[in-house]
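Q: I'm writing up a methods section and want to include an example of the input and output format. Could you take the sequence below and give the corresponding predicted structure tokens, formatted cleanly so I can copy it straight into the document?
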Amino acid sequence: MKRRHILTTIGASLSFATAGCLQGGSSNNEGSATAGSDVGYDTHQLGAVLATHASSLRFDTESSVGAVELYESSKEAYRSVPLDLGPLADRRSTNEAFIDATDFESELLIYVVTEWPLTNQSEIEVENLTLSGDTLVGTVRAIGDNAEEGDQAPMFPAGLVRVSVDDAHLTTVEVTVVDGRDNEEVFEEAYNG
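A: Here is the clean output for your methods example:
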């Protein structure tokens, strides 16, 4: 989304701003994942919400850097992802299409939400995903236009990461989330695949 559109949206006195668009991730691995290797993934920006909607994102914005949830079926994703929340609802068809395109026989979805310190364009970015033994280890960071300039109200960018796990024999997913102020928190989820 362009800065001009955000300024237009804010100027129109809307109570929210959306952020991001379908973003291709990286796929550094041609075959199936092996221990110590990067794994293939795609990142999808669900959008970003203002603090007024943050309570619906299912994390304590006062004591946590963010939240991570693991989905092993579309049913789990539809039950848990806040698709009807403020600006995320404006992108519902695109967000649903990303979930529907996931082959849960060989892929999983990771929901990540974190905080960006100011009201301007923000989203999540996967820095790395690596298979280490039976654990998928990765880092996801909040990024945005400028962490120093903008309205003082924080934004909460959320996204989905589709990960290829075919033949990976995973038992655990461990994601370090880094917010827009470089605070980190590690989240660990069991994988039953």
